[in-house]
Fold 3-dehydroquinate synthase.
Amino acid sequence: MKLQTTYPSNNYPIFVEHGAIDHISTYIDQFDQSFILIDEHVNQYFADKFNDILSYENVHKVIIPAGEKTKTFEQYQETLEYILSHHVTRNTAIIAVGGGATGDFAGFVAATLLRGVHFIQVPTTILAHDSSVGGKVGINSKQGKNLIGAFYRPTAVIYDLDFLRRYHLSKY
């Protein structure tokens, strides 16, 4: 099923279906480079789901810490430096694969990299399904959670129901 947001501007599609991850390939063809920022736990359970996507020469996988541990200045700088080392252009995509913290972090990277690049949300938890369409992205500071951030809407949101069906719930 394909839905469409109805904001006054900057609308984007929301795909909700089994196998929705296949829609990523359509988007990757449009970008100079794509960086999949994937939660370490999701990578552990679902790395095989991304083999076809990772076969593209212009796609890079970046495994990031799970949960709030990823939303630090240090992780932000490390991730940006890695991406920038690939000589990216504004026609680059950041693809968030994981829970809400992964989406927050990857969205903030997308919003600030070259003053904004494409951003695709691939939420893998129930809670992330809500936060992935809101457009709030950010990282934490020593003073509190989500104090550094932006409002940055994704290019697309891809809800692959297979993630929910196959999740090992004891990890979350």
Summary: The beta strands are 2-4, 13-17, 33-39, 59-64, 92-98, 118-123, 136-141, 144-151, 156-160. Helices lie at 23-28, 40-46, 51-54, 73-84, 100-112, 126-131, 161-166. The CA atoms of residues 27 and 93 lie 9 Å apart. The first helix runs from residue 23 to 28.
